[in-house]
User: Which sequence fits this backbone?
């Protein structure tokens, strides 16, 4: 599969999973946490699906399109491993983590801290959507929508 095909499958899976959970998240209190703002495409999608919901976005540098840049109070710049733990206990309804790199060694390093961070950010019953698998005793894997292959994107509920 070419990298273009792989990219298309990844962003299609992102969209389908975010659409799959957005109605449930809309009925749940708590902010949305976007780990990896990037260009701001998924931030913009979540903003459209969850109008009025506070979305706090994290990235090591601001590179989002101008129309998809959060307000300054909802943008946290720096290494997520260092910045996001300050928000542990915020009782997020949704954590979306799109910080996989496609490099096995870098992703393995991320996975030493991302599952625990995600669990600490979520409320009980809150939802985690991730491009990397999150193995954690408090995160229960959830079925994906039929359009998304196993291992393409990952979905969990905080116990
Ligand atoms: N979902 C975004 C979109 O739709 O535009 C794309 C996110 S992009 C794939 C991943 C982003 O996460 C990059 O902008 C990168 O700088 C950021 N990132 C990855 N690991 C990070 C870390 N450990 N700390 C801070 N930012 C990180």
Assistant:
């Amino acid at each position: 599969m070419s990298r273009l095909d792989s990219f298309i499958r990844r962003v299609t899976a992102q969209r389908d999973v975010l659409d799959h959970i957005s109605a449930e998240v809309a009925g749940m209190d708590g902010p949305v946490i976007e780990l990896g703002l990037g260009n701001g495409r998924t931030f913009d999608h979540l903003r459209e699906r969850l109008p009025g919901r506070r979305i706090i976005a994290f990235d090591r540098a601001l590179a989002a399109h101008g129309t998809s840049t959060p307000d300054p109070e909802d943008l946290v710049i720096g290494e997520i491993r260092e910045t996001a733990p300050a928000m542990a206990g915020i009782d997020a309804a949704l954590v979306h983590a799109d910080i996989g790199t496609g490099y096995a060694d870098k992703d393995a390093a991320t996975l030493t801290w991302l599952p625990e961070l995600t669990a600490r950010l979520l409320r009980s019953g809150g939802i985690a959507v991730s491009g990397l698998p999150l193995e954690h005793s408090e995160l229960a894997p959830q079925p994906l929508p039929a359009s998304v292959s196993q291992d393409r994107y990952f979905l969990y509920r905080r116990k």
